[in-house]
Amino acid sequence: MCTQCGCATESNQSAVSVIDIDVSLHSLNEKHAEENRRWFGEHNIKCLNIIGSPGTGKTSLLEASLPLIANELSIAVIEGDLASEIDASRIAKTGIPVQQINTGLGCHLESQDVLAAAKNQEYSDIDLLIVENVGNLVCPAQAEIGEDKKIVMLSVAEGDDKPAKYPETFAAADVIVVSKMDLMPYVDFDLTRFSDDVARLNAAATIIYLSSKTGSGLPAWTAWLQSQVNQAEVSI
Amino acid sequence: MHEMAVGKSLAQQVMETALQHGAQKVYRVFVEIGGASCINENALQNAFEVVVQNTIAAQARLQILRRPIMAQCPQCGEVELDGLMSSCNRCHSGDIQLLDNYDLRLKRMEFS
Fold first, then answer.
1. Taking CB atoms and an 8 Å limit, are B36 and A200 in contact across chains?
2. Residue to test with chain A: of B19, B20, B28, B103, most A Cβ within 10 A
3. Helix axis angle, A27-42 to B2-20, nearest 10°
4. Could you report the predicted ipTM of this complex, rounded to two decimals?
């Protein structure tokens, strides 16, 4: 055995071959994400990936906002959860097509599952596919599903320190939605600290502050959604 | 859970490479991960160990090198950071661009 690093534990060290390679291990995920991207492109579908902790209000935001633009845009939703059809039934009540994916123990949605759901007949003419990922502020940020934009969401009840504690996720966001703004009088959420931390991590990200309950900030959110399809610049 | 998917991807790449080179047994596998990659090294070790059971890589040792977090500073060029929210550690400017710190690469294999 080599005394320096313990390599070649077999006695015949000279028989050991060493090869230097350089292969990305994200390639499998990238390959599937690329397939999704191609499929979305061919069908003229914009795909948005919503990431946030359990209870941050992802489903509530979709319930409150999608009906406001359902006449102008053809939208469909994919809901990801470990178990249950709870979120899909909530969205179904708005009349917007929805499918639930249950990941079992999976902490994020896989590209292949998203594509299989997107190939549903009912989804063939849509403009916008909104994927609500499994409630988790870590893993979904690095598992691409071929989305056009990543939306990272947090509620003021969770605290202003989340960008500092989950920097990878906030650094990957195109849009950051801060929800439950109606709770501001009851929580110690320092907006300046929050936006400074975000600016540090991800200066290019758009931040939208809203409350699904009161409707404040929803026009900025729906305008952004529409801009994704219309490709027009919308000032927020 | 996340690392299991990465472990599978790694094992698949290791086995493909081993096959291409007619390897009988894999001794060591070297992987590099980006400084901001959400990979827990111990979890990846465990996942890899499980996935390569009963293969020619069953005894292989996985060596994981975590690279520093890198950023581009307009003043100093490419610099290492202490954390994703740190300033340039040379000129202390906060006006820096993070580079790709999420990569995960198979770099080297030893086999016979």
1. no
2. B28
3. 110
4. 0.80
Contact call for residues B36 and B101 (beta carbons, < 8 A): yes
Instruction: Enter the pTM of the model.
Output: 0.78
Question: Which amino acid is residue B100, in one-letter code?
Answer: D
B59 CA to chain A: closest CA distance, Å?
10
B2, B36, B110: residue with CB nearest A18: B110
If you search the block for the tokens 């809901």, which residue do you land on?
Answer: A79
Closest CA to A32 of A118, A102, A99: A118
Nearest CA in chain B to A163: B85
What distance in Å separates the CA atoms of residue A109 and residue A101, rounded to the nearest whole number?
8
d(CA A217, CA A127): 23
d(CA B38, CA A119): 30
For A214, residues 6+ apart whose C-beta sits below 8 A from its C-beta are A181, A182
How many A×B Cβ pairs under 8 Å? 101
pLDDT per residue as tens digits for the range A141-169: 888 999 999 999 999 999 999 999 999 89
Strands A149-155 and A46-52: parallel
CB pair distance less than 8 Å for B112 and A105: no
- Residues of chain B scoring pLDDT < 50: none
Task: Take residue A86 and report the two structure tokens written for it.
Answer: 């709870």
Nearest to A112 by CA among A189, A226, A35, A227: A35
Residues B38, A168: C-beta atoms closer than 8 Å:
yes
Which stretch of DSSP H or E encloses residue A98? strand A98-102
